[in-house]
Design brief:
- By secondary structure, the protein is of the alpha/beta class.
- The protein has 2 domains: 8-125 and 289-310, Aspartate/ornithine carbamoyltransferase (Rossmann fold, 3-Layer(aba) Sandwich), CATH 3.40.50; 129-286, Rossmann fold, CATH 3.40.50.
- 42% of the residues lie in helices and 13% in strands.
- Helix 7 links the parallel strand 5 (148-152) and strand 6.
- Helix 6 crosses helix 7 (157-169).
Length: 311
């Protein structure tokens, strides 16, 4: 595994499968204190519920410690440049989980840090979310290869990471969005290259009903992400026909899974009450952030020659 996890594409298919297997083992069997004496810095520019709590509890359950660094305390890129912050923290901690506005900030942290950097969310990707989502799908379906994952809505950081994760593991990926909110061409080209190797079928379309038809998984996210608040009304108008509701789910397979990374805007991207639909596994997703991140932290913070994870 690379020193850092900045993108899902930093992993190969085999590494993703190993993480899922290790996460499931830890979920059902527990885990020894692999990370006793280790410290993880949570360097956050954005607020968080699931990301902060899951990382803190993951470190605690693995015998380590997490320290939360708020935006006001650090002033990343304002009070201190990312290069200085990375070099200072490298002298104190064993790893850094960074939640940033700009992906460029993550790249700077990784360049100057001598300890692993984990992307806990940037404007480009959210790899921990996507990897946890694949864990949840595998847990429910027993496989990934050949399944069809449909994403309805904005081609945001979560969509990008899911696209890479699907195309690396042989899942078919459809995304339905208005023309002006379609996937970035660079991201699309990169994912298509992975799909050519794995056999994934990739489709980008405008009609959410067409995208939902016979899907194994329907996934959506908020139309307006953090930092886009001034565009909220414009986005509500653009995505008004992209709400996921019971009628849309009915177009998918009978055992379709409905997923959302949370927080959700009820009555916008999802209809009221959909989160409690029998097909919804939204809260299973949230729980699995903890288990996948435990597996990820053990892989990234233990020495390369450690044998504990192979037992």
């Amino acid at each position: 595994m690379n020193k850092d996890l900045l993108s899902v594409s930093d992993l190969g298919c085999g590494e993703i499968e190993q993480l899922i297997g290790q996460a499931l083992h830890m979920k059902h069997e527990g885990a020894p204190p692999f990370l006793s004496g280790k410290t993880l810095a949570l360097l956050f520019e954005k607020p968080s519920l699931r990301t902060r709590v899951s990382f803190e509890i993951a470190m605690h359950q693995l015998g380590g410690h997490a320290i939360y660094l708020s935006p006001d305390e650090v002033g990343l890129g304002k009070r201190e440049p990312a290069s200085d912050v990375a070099q200072v923290l490298s002298r104190y901690v064993d790893g850094i989980a960074a939640r940033t506005f700009s992906h460029e900030t993550l790249l700077a942290l990784a360049k100057y840090s001598s300890v692993p950097i984990i992307n806990a969310l940037s404007n480009l990707e959210h790899p921990c979310q996507a990897l946890s989502d694949l864990l949840t799908i595998y847990e429910k379906k027993g496989r990934l290869d050949g399944l069809t994952l449909t994403f309805i809505g904005d081609c945001n950081n979560v969509a990008n990471s899911l696209f890479f994760a699907a195309s690396l593991t042989g899942m078919n990926f459809r995304i339905a969005a208005p023309l002006e909110y379609r996937m970035d061409n660079t991201v699309l080209k990169q994912g298509m290259e992975y799909a050519a190797s794995s056999g994934s079928q990739i489709e980008q379309m405008r009609d959410p009903c067409e995208a939902a038809r016979d899907a194994d998984v329907i996934y959506t996210d908020v139309w307006t992400s953090m930092g886009q608040e001034t565009e909220a009304e414009k986005r509500r108008l653009a995505f008004s026909g992209y709400q996921v509701d019971n009628e849309l789910l009915a177009l998918a397979k009978g055992d379709v899974l409905f997923m959302h990374p949370l927080p959700a805007h009820h009555g916008e991207e999802i209809s009221a009450g959909l989160i409690d639909n029998p097909h919804s596994i939204v809260f299973d997703q949230a729980e699995n952030r903890l288990h996948l991140q435990k597996a990820l932290l053990a892989r990234m913070l233990l020495p390369d020659d450690s044998e504990v994870l192979s037992k």
